[in-house]
From TrEMBL:
Keywords: Cytoplasm, Transferase. Pfam families: DAHP_synth_1. It is an enzyme of class 2 (transferase). The lineage of its organism: Bacteria, Pseudomonadati, Bacteroidota, Flavobacteriia, Flavobacteriales. This is 3-deoxy-8-phosphooctulonate synthase. Belongs to the KdsA family. The keyword Transferase applies.
Amino acid sequence: MIQYLDNIHHKDSKKFFLIAGPCAIEDETMALQIAEHIVKLSDKYNIPYIFKGSFKKANRSRIDSFSGIGDETALKILRKVGETFNVPTTTDIHENAHAALAAEYVDVLQIPAFLVRQTDLLIAAAETGKAVSLKKGQFLSPEAMKFAVQKVKDSGNDKTAIIERGNTFGYSDLVVDFRGIPTMREYSPVILDVTHSLQQPNQNSGVTGGRPELIETVAKAGIAVGADGLFIETHPDPSIAKSDGANMLKLDLLDGLLGKLTRIREAIL
């Protein structure tokens, strides 16, 4: 996928690429702060980098959960991040109309896991001509993702990637089956969504839990088995993040983690 992004740096470094940023766009200052920090790290480690932030959170446990600061407001912030740091940006879309809307502001359209079988949504994303990342449904086998990829390709768009984010394990946990990464790489580049793989959904409080202490473990395993990229949500202070704080990485821990992961990548090349 990254070969189609003109504004991505370190494309030929042979490192894994990184999709990282806050779960949701909370305000411009926060988005620019996070992006600036990660851009410096991507230059330090020669890692191709895509900034991620959701412009709208449509899949919420409760009606009073944070869903966004306004669609156009958040999308304009994503555009500003991209222009300020000359990096590609990505956001998730939930409705057919979101595809054309978001495509005006970002470089990669992300299809959420719960919606990856929605044919019309995949076609709408593909027809924008933007790169499309497809989150594997928690309920799908790795082999089933070839059909989602094929829907995008049959719509005239070869700019695809698959995001692994774990499988439902009981009612309130997820596990990653690392055997699926090489399987899905037969269809498209594969990105391991480290932080969402450590969610603990369906908590009695209506707020998703998580296991952030295992971020390093899962990320190391992903690189070791050959993931093309990593997806990591991060925030200066996850305890006050408006969405998914329970499974996000504290921003100041990212440097040390990337250092370890690049050494693993170099060892297996």
